[in-house]
Amino acid sequence: MTGIVLCFALLQQGAPTTILLYRGASVGSGPAYWSVEDTSLSSQEPDAITGGQFTLSGGPGRTILIRFGDLQRAIGPNKKIVKASLELISLEKDVPSLRAISAVQASWGEGPAKTLTGVDLKPGETAPIIRWSSTWKHRRTGENGASWQQVGAQGAADAKQIASAKATFGQEGTLTISGLEASIQRQYDHPEECNGFALSFDNLTTFNSSEGAQGQPKLVVEVQNVEPVKGGDLAVTRIEQSINDQGEAAYTAYIKNVGQADSAPFGARWIVRESAGSLSEISKSLKPGEETTVTTSKPYKPNPVDHRVQPIAFKIEPSGPDAQPWNNSLSTFEDAFPVNIVLEKGFADKLGMDPEVWVQQQIASLNDVTFAHSKFSFALDGCLERVRAASILTVNDGTARVKAGTVFIQAGESGEPSRTFIKKVLMAMGIPDLATFNVPVDLDGAKRVRIDAYAGISGWGDTRNESMLTSSLSLKPVPAFDAYADLMHIAPTGLLSATEVGALNAMLQTKAKRETVWTLNLPRIVFINAVDLSGRPIGNAELSFFQMKNGKFDLEAPDFGVATSAQGSAKLPSNPTSEASGTASPFGTLDPSGSNAVFLVRVKKFGVTDWAWFSAWQLADAANRGQKALLLAELRFNMPTDALETETNLAKERIVADSAGSLPAQLSALVDENPATTVKLPGKAGDWIEVDMGRDRTIGDIVITSGEKFWKQFDIMVYATGMTAKDAQFWAREVDWDWASASRGVANAVSYRSNAVRFRFIRLVCKQSDQNATIAEIRAIPIKMNP
Fold first, then answer.
1. Which of 65, 611, 640, 681 pairs as cysteine with 753 (C-beta 3.0–4.6 A)?
2. Alpha carbon distances (Å) from 533 to 215, 538, 540, 635, 640
3. How wide is the angle at C-alpha 606 spanned by C-alphas 605 and 610, nearest 5°?
4. How many Å separate Cα 579 from the centre of its chain?
5. Displacement of CA 515 from its chain's centroid (Å)
């Protein structure tokens, strides 16, 4: 009978699921997984900070630290860790000899991202202090820092060896350290103890770090669903702060039983700046829904430059059963920005947990992941601001009065709850919602919406960390082939945009209104470089600029126009931005809300009209990178190099072939000029489909109409009679079909205009596809021939 019950329980749990975690991994429906930190500590350079490097170095007199955080979100709730292993890619010929792997017992800092831009110091200035990073001597450097108990994280209070761990080395250079499931389970159940691992080796070793483009450290976790534990569940739901006139800060921790049964008594301790205080015994048992408080006080001295470095936490230790240990601790920061949280009851009821616990979960994610990992060349440590919940209130309806600095979420709020919450917190802090002004515009008979291709949680701006670009280079503002960005693995994070981080960091010290900070100190001189999809200059063309006003465009008359030079460049006029800043920009005085922070730009040439967007946040990002005097901004248009004969389709009813060897009749729907008929496409990288136009033609535009889905990335290759596919030349490269289709497509059709050349064959080659795809039409538009 016992065996039958056990088998039934296993069936209820389901088969184990494997989750692969590395920096940038896709997890769930939210942003990608970025909470990976790693660094190398060296006795030969005891004060060196190496967390931003592309490699990790181990061996005698060295320690490698690596941490995988944010495990609750990445793995999901109510999970048992069945197996866990760490995979590292070795760059040495010799087999790594692992001496020990230990669970780190104290918090530490990875350090700033690596940058090629350097620090622009004025005469008499000194290099900025690097805070909160780890070295051979310190687990936290700078003010309010802390030393290891024993250098190199080798003390008993620094790390505890994992006896069950075993190391194996594969033929492809992969070092696998297994037997970590108990340690990962502990870090999953107790996020406040999730400090990662310390690795020591007997021989010199070098591994790829999480900063690299490939071969990153991976945590492989096999998990199984478990039934939620019922009973009493003590949770620390908030920490309130009050400061008196004498500079004394009082902190009150609220402990609430969010379970279904009476709780056990518990011990409690305050942890101030990561130094744990003594344990106080609380003999009281709490009934479901009942709460109690514990208060402490300390001198308060604000830090005007970095709000990470004065953490304060409260932790409880139940003496009996407790349903969910992950909510037994709560951290905040002495200098954190206070926000008042108001949830409408209809919203709170859908959360599936106590609303205060849910709010603190979101704030922890904002502080520990979103702020910490939104890094840029001017913010190598990410965002230095932190947030705390000053109050959390659930109301029956939306009639309750809310004040400035309040986050109010209604029952009918659309979107993913965590994303909605974080976005509203940012707005309460003074960050505008520029995504509000991504409004549909009727352009030449087609609806167009501005879409920031590399936006994050807020839906606007650019989240790519450009610190590996020199100051003379910049990232392309729209999806386009960029060899350097690909080489350096410069990818969007989906977290905060550069504009948001620049503004939040500037708000720490500015005397200006928080809402206006992002509009100040923009580049004084702006040049536009107009290029086509392939990056060729659009010379001797007229550009017309239409500025958004109060969130709308009036396309009857442009605000100004400029003519491009033969090289495609043009200087934009400067209008006074504000008397306070003393600078100028093409936007004039910017409204802090962003209601006039976008230009629609029209270009006309060869009888073709196309449009591009130019946003003030691009100027703000350039200023953050140090380009406060001069900016050369790129505008990319879909323009041909000659006039087009748009009524002619030279691909109509021509022969089609594909890499799967399909019969031409099976592919004929591709060239029947009927968008309702489609052809299924093979979906592996390297697969292709090709149209033979019968003889060489001079083409200026290739139009692709997809079915429901299409390849994410592909190349359009062309070649002439007498040539083979190996001789094909690039016509266009698509790096983000979804963006292209949404931002410049018409009825699932996207045009690719390029240099007018003669060719016979059009071949589409799949570069990346994560879904089945279909195609409806390929059209080949020739240039107009002179009579």
1. 640
2. 32, 10, 17, 10, 9
3. 45
4. 35
5. 23
Contact 720, 696 (CB under 8 A): yes
Alpha carbon distances (Å) from 411 to 401, 420, 422 = 16, 12, 16
Give residues with Cβ within 8 angstroms of 378, minimum separation 6: 498, 502, 624, 625, 626
Residue with tokens 């497509």: 745
Six token digits for residue 52 = 């931003």
Q: Which of 239, 271, 241 has its CA nearest to residue 256?
A: 239
Distance CA 213, CA 465 (A): 13
- Cα 685 to Cα 63, 89, 213, 681, 714: the distances in Å are 40, 25, 19, 12, 9
Q: E-assigned strands of 49-126?
A: 55-58, 62-68, 79-89, 98-104
CB 38 within 8 A of CB 128: no
Do residues 426 and 500 touch, judged by C-beta distance below 8 A?
yes
Q: Which residues contact 531 (CB under 8 A, 6 or more apart)?
A: 537, 538, 568, 634, 635, 636, 637
Q: Tens digit of pLDDT for each residue in 249-268? A: 999 999 999 999 999 999 99
Q: Which tokens belong to 69?
A: 């955080």
- Spans in the chain with pLDDT lower than 70: 1-13, 29, 117-128, 398-404, 576-583, 770, 786-787
Tell me the three-class secondary structure of 117-134, residue by residue. Answer: CCCCCCCCCCCCCCCCCC
Q: What is the radius of gyration, based on Cα positions, of the chain? A: 29
Alpha helices in 56-190 (DSSP H): 71-75, 181-189
The neighbouring-strand residues paired with 753 are: 701
Among residues 503, 373, 369, the alpha carbon closest in space to that of 433 is found at 503
Task: Give pLDDT tens digits for 537-581.
Answer: 999 999 999 999 999 999 999 999 999 999 999 999 987 655 455
The answer to whether residues 381 and 373 touch, using CB atoms and an 8 Å cutoff, is no
CA-to-CA distance for 40 and 64, rounded, in angstroms? 5
Q: Which two tokens stand for residue 45?
A: 């350079």
Asked if 278 and 269 touch (Cβ cutoff 8 Å), the reply is yes
Question: DSSP class of residue 93?
Answer: S
